[in-house]
Amino acid sequence: MISPGVLLNGRYRVIRPIGGGGFGKIFEVDDGGITKVLKVLSKERFHNPVIQNKAIALFRREAEVLSRLVHPGIPRVDPDGYFTCSVQNSYHQLHCLVMEKIVGSNLQDWLQARASQPITTELAISWLNQLAEILQLLHQRQYFHRDIKPSNIMLKPDGQLVLIDFGAVREVTTSYLQKQQGDETGTVIISAGYTPSEQAEGHAVPQSDFFALGRSFVYLLTGKSPLEFAKNPETGELVWRDQATLVSPHLADLIDRLMAPFPGQRPQNSQEILQYLAQIPKNSPTGLREFLQRISSISSPTPRRTTPRERLPHSRIFQFVLSALALLVSTPFLWTSPPAIADNFNSTGWENYEKKRFYSAEFYYRLALIFDSKRPEYQYNLGLVYEDQTKFDQARAAYEIAAQKDFDKAYNNLARLDILDKKYTQAVSLLQKSLSLVEDKETKYTILKNLGWAQMQLGHYQEALTNLQEAINLFHNKAPAFCLKAEVLQRQGNQQASVSDWKNCMKYGDPQNPDERLFMNLAPPNLK
Which of 80, 109, 147, 253 is catalytic? Predict the structure, then answer.
């Protein structure tokens, strides 16, 4: 049995289990100071020897494929990342695969965290470009994935998509093609709603990946599973476009082509997809009709779970809509400048946020994003609203979108959530990246303070002291860095040196501020 602290293959120290499913379990491991992911195939889960051997073959194939592919959108696996081993109190040999740890959320969890709010056409085009490039590399190497779906696509904080779970990957060999021509079925991998009919019948082809890709974007652009839509009885096509009225018709046409019932009706290679995406015209400024449609969707009951006390009566929602329209028409010259309209809504949102009117603030921030979805500040502000309401999953989703555009404050707030979740290594990585982006002094202080905080929790005391002192050098009258520095010195056994920092911690700290109160509570009783 694998448990935390176990050393595998003389190299990988198990940190903790992080999931399971498929053929086995998944662990976080330490490889010489680098956190990686360990997938373990447990043969005892398969009582049938034929199925067991097939599972082992698929597991080995995943290792072989990943070790040959180098792309930011594919998890890295070292050539020696696959190995077998035995552990104490186990009679079974374990098949193990160590790979790069992908920091981020899968797209299914990501969309659910933002209350299934559909993505924009602009973001869909960007993501389709990324995934088509990944599939281009995969197909050029004569492989196809066979299990593309939102839960198998990871979104990193920097906006990079990563295709994961290559356990179902298939190599396009001569023998495979001969079997296809001879109508012999291969291994059947099915994910309901995303798998095309030819794959369900055991005849998957590279174009099967395009079908699953199209179905994935139906989910992302509507917030609904493909299984929730009917099919045209004459053509077999999915009837989904009436649920995505604000999606570019050009993009919707491409998605319909990706999901065509027969492989020959789909794009024949990824280059066709990339060329089509490049020809999609840029969206024109949002018109009044589209604006009112989006207002309607915002003012309708949202799909996220809320308590009855959180829901506003329809009369109150109507007042919000009228206020928004009044704000819009009061500045007639802004109609030629959607970014200026967005900025107006954002300012109104901030005014409401400062007055703790969180529902109103969220409403206006979302309006701002309708008129200018490119401004990361609006997503960041939306994250602040969610975080202040302790809706941490939604806050994280908003911060991740802002971080995709290298908004330094978003990286910092993501890292802070990671620290609170005890994901210290992940927090350090985000904060170190944000340091290279930061411009203003106040934000740099906060980043350095949080970096010192995470490093302290990891036991990297000297690095923590260096960053906390740099923060103190920026502001001599802010408590958090003093508090954390004092705690680091105390953990090092240097109580005498910590006294002056504890005094500054108590001198400048504000007990009404939750974070500062948390740090002040670390002080020894005689200094409080």
Answer: 147
